[in-house]
Design goal:
Oligomer: single chain
Strand content: 5-15%
Distance between the termini: 79 Å
Strand order of the largest sheet: 3-4-7
Shape: elongated
Number of strands: 11
């Protein structure tokens, strides 16, 4: 591998935002390039103009950078193999298409979309797999010429179809899946390489681009396996060597066991969605790499630099990769706990501002209060958007007490503890963590009640919750007035 010139690419279509599956493709190509000291190229495949969205390319670039990737060549980093947008490479494709037509390896096809649709429906009705049937089959040269003349006279724009060789096997040793072969008769007949608008189709343009850009290895999703024999035909027709292919396993939804589909709304699938929830890029990257690739040993948390060093394409899995949202939360929580306090503070504060809990451009005192509040929940958060839910008590007061909590307050010890605490709090000159803890200790000494029987009634009375962060810190942030209000209300209820 060291002697070979390594050049790999990630080639997204700007028809949508960066998807988890696309991000994984980019990452595996990136790791391969960086591990072997090769080049990583970003190429935009935008030939399908009707489906491109305005900020599709920007989303791809911004989110790849957010995940921590960089590239050696691309639309924003011109190199000697450019342009790096397919829409700007039309002049490269046309002579090659003309060459194939001149050599009899491709031809003009005038079947309309309606005719093609009718052909497919008839095949389905006959129990056949839909496929293109040569529209000129059985015609004499004169009849073929007349048919083409009639189509032109009717103003029909042709597509260019590649003439699929008959009785030919196309095979390759896949870097992930092993040996794969296709018979030429199974791919659906002569396929389009240039559309009516003059733009090349994916299967033609990708071959030309990969050859011209000297791509050595192509790592892509399992759904591209069926495209590979078509591409091998074009490589062969143009007299070019094909790169080495590696097709990565599907990603499945752990809950349903089905292939991860962009239409599956039960799971967030776009990097932008995770960014908005306050996931950290290192955690997302860590999780995505583990979708279909496994490191040696039991550890699962690594930096990008560590992944580059240990990367081995032989450890790419042939089995489907399970997208487990709970595992992603666990991984992100590990990174949140280890992250710099200021970084989490900034992200979580934005979440509180966006949720309307804290005003925009808050005063310094509010910021400091929010810092303490966020830090209180830092270890609990799987992603920073959770801060809004976790801190509901501090903005909207406590929720109703559930039945389990009411049972905790039904003991003989609860009311004496709360009454003693009210007296202790009334005598405090400063309501801070140190004095609150001292007051609770004084209640323990006075009543002889300790442990759960001491702490649980206090937590439930003031927060209406049985679980939460450190109680003295929580009460300081809640403040004296609200803490006493909740405490007195519970004493009255229990009395």
């Amino acid at each position: 591998m060291a002697k070979q010139k390594i050049r790999v690419r990630y080639a997204p279509s700007p028809t949508g935002h960066l998807h988890i599956g696309n991000a994984r493709t980019a990452l595996f190509n990136y790791l391969f390039a960086r591990h072997y000291k090769g080049k990583f190229i970003l190429r935009i495949e935008d030939t399908d103009q009707s489906r491109n969205i305005a900020d599709g390319e920007k989303s791809q670039i911004d989110n790849l950078k957010w995940l921590g990737m960089d590239w050696d060549e691309g639309p924003d980093k011109p190199g000697e193999y450019g342009p790096y947008r397919q829409s700007e490479r039309k002049g490269i494709y046309q002579p090659l298409i003309d060459q194939l037509v001149a050599e009899g390896k491709a031809y003009e096809s005038y079947m309309t979309e309606e005719e093609l649709a009718a052909q497919r429906e008839e095949q389905k009705a006959n129990g056949e797999m839909p496929h293109y049937v040569d529209e000129y089959a059985g015609l004499s040269p004169e009849q073929k010429e007349q048919k083409i003349a009639d189509a032109k006279a009717a103003g029909i724009e042709p597509v260019i179809r590649f003439k699929v060789p008959t009785n030919t096997t196309y095979e390759w040793d896949d870097l992930v899946k092993g040996h794969i072969s296709f018979e030429s008769e199974t791919i659906g007949g002569d396929f389009v390489i240039q559309k009516r608008d003059g733009m090349p189709t994916y299967n033609f343009a990708v071959v030309v681009d990969d050859h011209m850009m000297e791509i050595s290895h192509v790592f892509r999703g399992d759904d591209h396996v069926a495209n590979t024999p078509k591409q091998l035909m074009i490589y062969e027709a143009l007299g070019w060597d094909a790169p080495q292919f590696g097709h990565m396993s599907l990603i499945i939804n752990t809950e349903t066991g089905k292939k991860l589909s962009k239409r599956d709304e039960s799971i967030l699938q776009f990097i932008e969605q995770y960014r908005s929830l306050g996931y950290l890029p290192e955690a997302m990257l860590n999780f995505i790499i583990l979708l279909g690739w496994s490191p040696v040993g039991e550890s699962e948390i690594f930096t990008l630099r560590e992944f580059v060093k240990m990367y081995d394409e032989k450890r790419l899995s042939k089995s489907p990769a399970a997208f487990d949202a709970k595992k992603l939360e666990w991984i992100n929580n590990q990174y949140v706990k280890a992250a710099d306090e200021d970084r989490i503070m900034h992200s979580a504060l934005l979440q509180l501002i966006n949720a309307g809990k804290i005003e925009k451009n808050p005063a310094p005192m509010t910021v400091e209060w929010a810092r303490k509040l966020i830090n209180l929940f830092k270890r609990q958060m799987s992603y920073t958007a959770q801060i809004v839910e976790f801190t509901e008590l501090f903005f909207n007061g406590p929720e109703n007490i559930d039945e389990e909590a009411k049972e905790e307050l039904a003991t003989d010890d609860a009311l004496p503890v709360l009454k003693a605490l009210e007296k202790q709090f009334s005598d405090l000159s400063v309501f801070d963590t140190v004095n609150i803890l001292a007051a609770i200790k004084a209640v323990q000494k006075e009543t002889g009640i300790k442990g759960r029987k001491l702490w649980m009634p206090i937590r439930i009375a003031i927060t209406h919750e049985m679980h939460g962060p450190e109680l003295p810190e929580s009460l300081e942030l809640l403040g004296y007035e609200l803490s006493m209000q909740h405490l007195r209300a519970m004493i009255e209820e229990l009395s």
